[in-house]
Amino acid sequence: xxxxxxxxxxxxxxxxxxxxxxxxxxxxxxxxxxxxxxxxxxxxxxxxxxxxxxxxxxxxxxxxxxxxxxxxxxxxxxxxxxxxxxxxxxxxxxxxxxxxxxxxxxxxxxxxxxxxxxxxxxxxxxxxxxxxxxxxxxxxxxxxxxxxxxxxxxxxxxxxxxxxxxxxxxxxxxxxxxxxxxxxxxxxxxxxxxxxxxxxxxxxxxxxxxxxxxxxxxxxxxxxxxxxxxxxxx
Length: 234
Ligand SMILES: [Zn+2]
Fold this sequence. Notes:
By secondary structure, this protein is α/β, with parallel strands linked by helices. The chain has helices at residues 17-28, 46-57, 69-74, 104-119, 141-154, 156-159, 175-184, 207-219, and strands at 8-12, 32-39, 62-67, 123-125, 165-167. A five-stranded parallel sheet has the order 3-2-1-4-5, sandwiched between helices. Bound molecules: zinc ion. Zinc ion (ZN) binds at residues 195-197, 202-203, 206, 208-209.
């Protein structure tokens, strides 16, 4: 943990590569970090184990795992519907993928703002990325700008002129750029989980695995996690 020269920040920590990088960035900037992980019935539940390991690695002040069971009840996503298969058709598809979880980031950010107000944090970090997930409406700059405005008008801190800042350092980066930045900060990617299937070993063929593997390859680095299928099979 750092010396908190920047005050406190809330990092939304899924346990994936992007949120781990966000945690590394917030830590490197000198924030005292609290981490929030949301358990919404996602099929890749290993993420939560990864989030726990990352929070421990960074010795965050508090790590809260927040149950959001109702997202699983609502369903409507390949990540929460047990009988939907996760996509493998390619990461460049233009349509909104079936892994989009309706309302997920809106809920996450609302709860992060609540928590930020309670602990007096002036920054909220979320690892959204508009390039690699261009089909997700809640990963776009327009959405982030709109939520930032809501923080200004809809929170006590905002009315008092110190609304929590929404920090999205990965918003316009490629996966390779994210990995290069995180590697330079010493982010322990071996602790992260990205596979949509959620097995003990990453499948290597779902869209999330493919995007991650392409990112490491483009960055000229080796992904430290094991895969069921070797890189040369892709
Ligand atoms: Zn996978």
